[in-house]
Amino acid sequence: MRGFLVLTALVAGLVVPLAAQASPTEVGPRIALFGAPASFPAETPFHVTQGFTCELGKAACLSGFTHFDLSVDGQPMSSATDLVFGDDGTLLAKLDLTNFRDGLPAGTHTLSGQWYYLGALVQTQTVVIDFA
What we know:
Blueprint: H1 2-19, E1 39-40, E2 46-53, E3 67-72, E4 75-76, E5 80-85, E6 91-100, E7 107-117, E8 120-131
Parallel strand pairs: 1-8
Antiparallel strand pairs: 2-6, 3-4, 3-7, 5-6, 7-8
């Protein structure tokens, strides 16, 4: 039974990165948490993509413990993982994409991002944007 659990964990670990190789489709312009606009049109599609540049030859970037989390007004948002590869197949970046297909309603909203590298919080950024 123990061998089955280990095999299941290994297979699950392989399936997640392979499934993430297909780049998710971005909706609308990107709002970056560093250099975010002070205002943005309400109910207009946009996306947030943040993550990590991967060190050459380091597989830590693929770890499920290395990720970016986004919250809006204190509510966690779901995201899709996008792995970026070079022409030679080298992993260049691991990004997390959150689409806001309907934008956000009018008002002031707080977007907060947390970057985790191998489970350790390494960066936090919070921006306040007026959606008008």
